[in-house]
Design a protein that fits this description.
This protein is α/β, with parallel strands linked by helices and about 250 residues long. A six-stranded mixed sheet has the order 6-9-10-3-11-12, sandwiched between helices. The chain has a four-stranded antiparallel sheet with strand order 2-1-4-5. Helix 6 links the parallel strand 9 and strand 10. The longest helix is centred in the C-terminal third of the chain and has 17 residues. It is globular. The relative contact order is 0.19. Bound molecules: adenosine-5'-diphosphate and magnesium ion (MG). The site of adenosine-5'-diphosphate has 12 residues, from helix 1.
């Protein structure tokens, strides 16, 4: 069981951004991709979730033996993939509770109904775990949310959907100390509650220091240029990305 990416090339508006990505994330492992701004990290996460603006020109991606690139966005989610975007979308007029309930319902086996009591019980338990106020549920999805609130919301979604593979894009950027703590708590809770894998994408090392990262990858100019264990986090912390950029 794993997420396998082989020689993945992808274009955005005719320009090649991903230039041959190779990556394997076995189930249960935590991997981090670090890299400077513009190196293609968000592009990789969008390609994996099936965003229509990103064109795969070469390569493969397999999720537990299923061809990910052949699947619709919906099918990818049902297969257990979860993506928290760097810039989450707003959904005016839809309450957070209804949004989360629909998302959970969509992942239930066919014909099974998610009843309100079960839903709210689960929702409130997870919110308490993250220290989130109840009023959060009645607000429209991400509308007027601060950066920290959006990220908390995504972590809440992740805990509710309980995906097999979760990709978190820049989950820590622009967050204050409390929000980073909530996000870290959420990631830890996810690690405890599920046997899922995590791919954490970040340009800063802040959130990684508190997490049990199995492997760290450095992405520069659309390629993974180095893979190592968590010691790489410290290396980047001290020296930045310059050494990897000049070697590229
Ligand atoms: P990172 O997340 O590592 O900072 P991105 O994947 O966001 O990098 O961007 C990589 C490159 O692709 C950048 O040069 C960016 O301008 C370009 N790019 C990404 N998405 C788009 C898009 N939707 N339209 C045009 N250019 C894009
Ligand atoms: Mg990005």
């Amino acid at each position: 069981m794993s997420l396998v990416i082989k020689n993945l090339h992808a274009n955005v508006q005719g320009t090649e951004i991903l230039k041959g990505i190779n990556l394997e994330i076995p189930k249960g492992e935590v991997h981090a991709i670090m890299g400077p701004n513009g190196s293609g990290k968000s592009t990789l996460s969008k390609v994996l979730c099936g965003h229509p603006d990103y064109e795969v020109t070469e390569g493969e991606a397999w999720l537990d033996g299923q061809n990910l690139l052949d699947m619709s966005i919906d099918e990818r989610s049902r297969a257990g993939l979860f993506l928290a975007f760097q810039y989450p979308m707003e959904v005016p007029g839809v309450s957070n509770a209804n949004f989360l309930r629909a998302a959970m319902q969509a992942r239930m086996p066919h014909g099974e109904e998610l009843d309100a009591v079960t839903f709210y019980k689960t929702l409130y338990a997870k919110m308490d775990q993250l220290g989130m106020a109840r009023k959060f549920t009645s607000r429209a999805v991400n509308e007027g949310f601060s950066g920290g609130e959006k990220k908390r919301n995504e972590v809440l979604q992740m805990l509710l959907l309980d995906p097999l593979y979760a990709i978190l894009d820049e989950t820590d950027s622009g967050l204050d100390v409390d929000a980073v703590r909530t996000v870290s708590k959420g990631i830890e809770a996810y690690r405890k509650q599920s046997k899922g894998s995590l791919l954490i994408i970040t340009h800063s090392t802040k959130i990684l220091e508190a997490l049990p990262v199995d492997y760290t990858h450095i992405m520069v100019n659309g390629k993974i240029v180095k893979t190592s264990d968590s010691s790489l986090i410290e290396e980047v912390n001290e020296n930045g990305f310059a050494a990897y950029e000049s070697a590229e």
